[in-house]
Input
Amino acid sequence: MPFANTEIPGRFQTLLAERGIRMTGQRRAILNVIETAKKHLDAGQILRRARKLDASIDRSTVYRTLGLLKRHGLIDELDLMHLEGEAHYYERKPDRGHIHLACLRCGKIIEFDSDLFESLKAQMEKECGYRIAVARLEVGGYCSKCRT
Amino acid sequence: MPFANTEIPGRFQTLLAERGIRMTGQRRAILNVIETAKKHLDAGQILRRARKLDASIDRSTVYRTLGLLKRHGLIDELDLMHLEGEAHYYERKPDRGHIHLACLRCGKIIEFDSDLFESLKAQMEKECGYRIAVARLEVGGYCSKCRT
DNA sequence: ATTCTGTTGCAACTCTGTTGCAACAACCCG
DNA sequence: CGGGTTGTTGCAACAGAGTTGCAACAGAAT
Ligand SMILES: [Mn+2]
Ligand SMILES: [Mn+2]
Ligand SMILES: [Zn+2]
Ligand SMILES: [Zn+2]
Output
């Protein structure tokens, strides 16, 4: 997310419409916040940003919409090692899964792509007989600047 | 954990003593619960079991002890896809990291070891310049019995 | 035994997320 | 375009997980 400006804005709306999901002003606001985010946001941050577009939006609507997007596989939910508090973070589900590394000292998050990760997912499906819906690899460590 | 009976009981106590950590009755009870657990436990379950050994233990002591063990790298914290509620789960940190697959329908958790996973961690350390302290790979999907 | 210091129980609290319900607004159909 | 159906919303109350300040307490070392 701190990357990928390759997203068509309104993508979520299209995908949800295709599946016959009713579109509302509140949902448009929330989708827009998530689609245009340049970093990982938690539910509280999404709420605050969405309220700038539609001041009446309630917390419960944000959670319900996040639930909807999760069920439809359009977003991923992350812990990011719960570096501050217990909130979960959200991001558009990328075409290709990526890994999150969090620095336990400075909090920097970096994202990482790897063919090895793709192979590993394939191996799990094959050897465990699971059909994978979501795979989260999150790493805590110390970035080059923070190593003691 | 649903496996690994290869642990020396009292291992945690030794490791903490070596690091000059004060040992108390409450801690002994909690460590004992975690060391002998045959499945992943959340803080509430750990509390209930620990109270059978020392009835006066408080919730906050469990959380403080879990924090201690996490800081010392003796346990891992897991989401297990938050299949029921928002609690986190705990297990002894194994010598070799393993992957958790959760079935989104029946809740079955399976654990999986892979050389690919070890290589991937090595690759991340090398390419990202992070020193990895903890790596969590958690997968949600559908087990062979639950596939539609 | 005494002292020092880290630990505990308690109670109150914060924060994240959920739910029942009545009012409301999309969307479909004619 | 209305008008009805049904999914969605705000609200307010709730539930659950985890945290904190503090006074009493208990390890460990002398
Ligand atoms: Mn979590
Ligand atoms: Mn495990
Ligand atoms: Zn750092
Ligand atoms: Zn299953």
